[in-house]
Amino acid sequence: MVEIETALAKVNLYLHVTGRRADGFHLLDSLAVFGPATDTLSATRSDDLTLSLDGPFGATLSAEPDNLVLRAARALAAATGHEAGAALRLTKRLPVASGIGGGSADAAAALRLLNRLWNTGLNETSLAAIAAPLGADIPVCVASRPARMQGVGEIILAAPSLPECGLLLVNPGVPLATPAVFRARQGGFSPAAELPASWPDAKAMAADLRLLGNDLEAPALALCPVIAKVLAALSAQPGCLLARMSGSGATCFGVFASAAAAETAALAMPREWWAAGGGLYGAGPPSLHRGTAGV
What we know:
single chain; alpha+beta; Ribosomal Protein S5, domain 2; Alpha-Beta Plaits; globular; disordered C terminus
């Protein structure tokens, strides 16, 4: 029997750096949403713990000695007393080191998948607690639904109700390491955002988000100037309500009124860039929870 789990791209609609702890970790405030592109993880029972890779970006991870998926599997086994055995296969469609939480989403998918395969019976809260030491984005990826992230990623709060909308993700093909972006960051800290309980439509949501920002965008631009071209290309698309960088980059996103508009805009991006357009998971009616990835 093969178990299959989807790993959704995580997008930061805004990201404020609100402070820094004594241990050097930065405190964040962000609204995280999911979609429209995915990785896929599958597993079958095995005596040994193994991971094979395929997909457009699988080769990029092949040199990693200890993939986050394997670390998540071992962490779940240690927490539950289960023997860490499974034959895992990761189909990698999300760009690596790109600011959309691909590795975190994969690790979260491994926790959900192996929780079923091994019959460990843990709930989301318990899985998120196991995920927290592995990476700041992994707890929010466990649930993979819109959420407010604070602290160092361990504080997960309810998100405003999101309107029907579309999202276009674009990456210029340049990996960008998160630690380097934080090191390049200058200046003070931003306050936590004030968000409404809901937005009536995508236009209203984009208007509020324009008053916020991504505090990592400026240092990322300094390290990776092509991000400016991606933002310009997104802004130039008909119907784009907001263009911004996600996470620590270099992936940027555009907000559109509908999934169809985002899918159409994806086709206009330069062919050498990675692009994925579609709807958000957890926003609008279920019919919008789709996308065209990697066009």
